[in-house]
Please model this.
Amino acid sequence: MARRWKRKEVRFYSPRRHWGWIGLGIVLLTAVWGAQHSIFWGIWTHAQPPDASVSKPPPAVPSSSRSFEEPAASMVPEDLVIPILCFHDVSHSSSRWAVAPEAFENLLKTLTKEGYDFLTVSEAVAVVKGEFSGNIPDRPIALTIDDGFPSAYHTVFPLLQKYQVKATLFVYTEGIKGHPLLSWDDLKEMVKSGLVEIGSHSVSHTYPFPLLKRFGRKAFKVKMEREVFESRKILEERIGEPVSGFAYPGGQVDKTLENLVKEAGYSWAVTINPVPFRLGMNLYRIPRFAVAKGTTLKGINRWLTGESEPQQTAVSPP
Model:
């Protein structure tokens, strides 16, 4: 009897019956590949030499640091104070506002030993605004010299160099052009040293309040506009450096004069008021303690340590 062969049906594999399994396989393969790639990428990047062009996170800054590489006003200590001393003539003159050179040097020597760091007024403003490029000093202080007496160059400047401390010098331009107290070359040399910044003290050193009382508000504004604007222009042209600050003659200022100083492009201005410079103060009425002939080192120390607050009015030497 002949064997009858049954024809087998040939079936081709169809993935449609296994879509679920295929999808799950793809997901698993992707996950495994991703993990391996991440591991190998980490190994590769850590193996690169220091100069490889691989981005690295910046080093962490300790919370106790007061570095201002990235300015932030919130980093400025709320209790920060910056005493600013105002001198005029450092000589043996009989003037009420003349301080003996020996006394001035003794002050620099004492404050340096006590750990004070001397800033220009522009630097002091930068500290208060949270824009200081560096570490905030633990004991900051600023020296200012008004008017431009010959002693600013012949006595004060050599002492600044000797003790390597900074100061801000305010000059009125007619004092240099008419009867030279200082020459333009003297000013340039001091600025070039990096120890002295120059600020404006007006054109003619005219006291604002008597001018206002004599001529009235309108004439006062016209006169003071020239004093404020022209002095800055002349100083910048002659010394070749920007002038950021203004010192009100006699320390006298009202709202009209303050607005003129702002309009002229100054960043800050100083007056006379024996309190330390603090956060939140008006940058166009920065206080200073005026040092006179009868001011003792003990008295200055008492003021610096907050033991006393001497009473002073906005009056400077005539």
User: Anything to note?
Assistant: The first helix runs from residue 19 to 46. DSSP finds ten helices and twelve strands in the chain. The chain has a mean pLDDT of 81. The domain at 80-301 is CATH 3.20.20.370 (TIM Barrel).
